[in-house]
Specification:
Elements: H1 2-15, H2 32-38, E1 52-58, E2 63-72, H3 74-83, E3 92-94, H4 96-99, E4 114-119, E5 128-135, E6 141-149
Antiparallel strand pairs: 1-2, 2-6, 3-4, 4-5, 5-6
């Protein structure tokens, strides 16, 4: 029995290796691309090199949390918004989810920092929330995404 379990774990690791872009503590075994697909999101190639993410499942209550950070030029941020059919609000606002991310992610901790906010709405029967905050005061811009369902 122990050998079968070891083989199963080894096979799972070979078929679904941990993505080096995943933050520590992320539920392993699924790539960034798989998590983007689950979140109904596309990350253009220009945002891929800097992308870091975390994905968490709660098996007791079927819920899913996907957090993504990437840096990008203004043109790349525009491409990300356009390809996903998102529209940024013209005014700045606070994004508490950025400062409340786990410390090991290295996200900014200033809870009152102002970001360009991108509201996202889905027409679905299951509860889905998407929060996007963009810090365009720096170049390249910092983009933070939080997707949750369940």
């Amino acid at each position: 029995m122990g050998l079968v379990a070891l083989l199963a774990v080894s096979l799972a690791y070979v078929l679904y290796p941990d993505d080096p872009r995943a933050y520590p503590g992320s539920d392993g075994g699924e790539s960034l691309d798989r998590n983007l697909a689950r979140a109904h999101m596309v990350l253009p190639a220009c945002g891929q090199p800097s992308a870091r993410y975390a994905a968490h499942w709660d098996g007791l209550f079927p819920s899913y949390l996907f957090q993504l950070r990437f840096t990008a030029s203004p043109g790349c941020v525009d491409e990300f918004l356009q390809v996903n059919h998102y529209t940024a609000l013209p005014e700045q606002g606070v994004a508490f989810f950025v400062s409340r991310a786990p410390a090991e992610y290295g996200w900014p901790s200033d809870q009152w920092k102002k970001y360009t906010i991108v509201p996202v709405a889905f027409e679905t029967t299951s509860p889905i929330a998407v929060l996007i905050a963009i810090d365009s005061s720096i170049d390249p811009s910092d983009v933070f995404v939080k997707f949750s369902s369940g």
